[in-house]
Amino acid sequence: MGGKKKSVFRFSMLLLLSLGLVLSACSGGNIKEAAKNGNNGQATEENTTNGVEPFEISVFIGEAGQQPTPDNKIYKLIKEETGASFKFEFLAGDIDQKLGVMIAGGDYPDVMTANQKLTAAGAFIPLEDLIEEHAPNLKKHYEKYWNMMKDPNDGHIYNLPNYGVTNADVSSSWYSGPAFWIQKDVLAEAGYPEVKTLDQYFDLIKQYKEKHPTIDGTPTIGFEILNYDWRNWGLFNAPQHLIGHPNDGGVVVKDGKAEIFADKDYAKRYYQKLNEMNALGIIDKEAFTQNYDQYMAKISSGAVLGMFDQHWNFQDAENALITQKKDNRTYVGLPLVFDEGIKDHYKDRPALNLNNGFGITVNASEEQQVRIIKLLDTLIQEDWQKILSWGIEGEDYIVENGRFMKTQEQRDVFTDATWKLANKADAFFKHGPKTEGLFSDGNATDAAAQPEEMAAALREYDKNFLAQYGFNTYVDFFSPAPENDIAYPAWSVDLVDGSEAKMVNTKQNELSTKYLPKAILAKPEEFDSVWDEYVNEIRKLNIKAYEDRINEVLQWRKDTWSVK
Fold this sequence. Notes:
Layout lengths: L10 H15 L2 H12 L15 E7 L11 H10 L1 E7 L4 H11 L5 E3 L2 H5 L7 H7 L1 H7 L3 H4 L28 E6 H6 L8 H14 L2 E2 L2 E2 L13 H4 L1 H5 L8 E4 L2 E4 L4 H15 L12 H9 L5 E5 H13 L7 E4 L23 E3 L5 H14 L2 H8 L8 E3 L2 E3 L2 H7 L2 H7 L2 H4 L21 H7 L2 H10 L30 H22 L5 H12 L4 H18 L4
Parallel strand pairs: 1-2, 1-3
Antiparallel strand pairs: 3-11, 4-9, 4-10, 5-6, 7-8, 12-13
């Protein structure tokens, strides 16, 4: 890995490619005009490539998704201006199984979303030389994060992080991270109480479920749990937050040292509470047999009162509720702790999203590698970032006195999944390099962080709801995020496939997947015996090898990372 020999490009081919793609890279100034002059991305066959040679990029997205419509206006505009089109493949089934088949056959598309298995298998090419030679905008974009992006095993850059490159600390009205979520109607019916602890949370859910055994004809689910594929944090991660720690994945970092929490007494306290709630019929009976799509369908029905999850993970299901105008069935994130004396630490500052974003595979030809990196270099420019985030001026947003805003109609369609497939390039933009913070004209890169838009976008229901708490946004429910430790977060540490640390972590996760549902579903008098068996099995593993790897990389980050 990383020792692959670099081939020599033929000068004539590079010259030809450079000419075509430099024209593409310089087209940013014409983008707005092309969109505003009635083109709207509806390119004809004759003008599709705008004098640039067309090319297709095959892309694998390592999560479930839907294909954009063939006439998607943003992808059409990208093709018209740059020549590039995308052939997307989305994950269907188990990610490890899918990647195992790909790796065994060496069968990769041009571009794939990052995964440590792929990096370890040598599926990705090092990107630093390509960026240095062909992508000045990308180099500038990642400049102060350059050392962070380097693989600790060989010093190469294999993936382009999709989140965490920020140029301003802006407050968003939308919280994307982990929390205990509760339906707004549960709080409204209880008189808008302050909810600080896990016990208070479940008391409210229990009372509401007793009064409302069904919602819109569907049996009410008190608390939902997702433990499917790589989305296992819904079952695993809550204990660290309940004791006042941020999201470090499978460990808690105390005084700079990481230790697992799966076998700790505070983890037992959480799962014993779930056991008690299950005995009362609060936990979904299908929680441990459902897949992600089934979980999302239940949330979008409006019948789920609460769950522990990350907001971005169920955002599409909540958008379905918004589209149905079921505002009272949407959710508030609560930063719960065990006891009121504990300070919550759910909200963190953006950290570079390592081991995520796009990488270029070894199967992309040399010419294709240059095309791809130059395309990404073009799309990171500000005109394109505005299109990818806000959309087309006049269609998807308006400008008043230089400030970006949306009409109510534009806000309404923005949460509609069907509309997005035809009018947003989300499959690319979610995983591609992006500007976060502010554009050079002072507008926020995200509508949810544009102050005027934040205020105007609130529906009457939400204005009234927030007023009951004296808050301006739903982010105000959380304590402000302190500065991140430079090595944060531990969840992004590469455990290295085939290493003892990786094998131990895999076995521990398998034990958790087996025993935690068993403990939650057990009769209350049998919980202790199941828990003790679980802890004994964990302690048979060489947990120290796992913790040592985490701590080794955290120390390496402290020693080598520097942020200007």
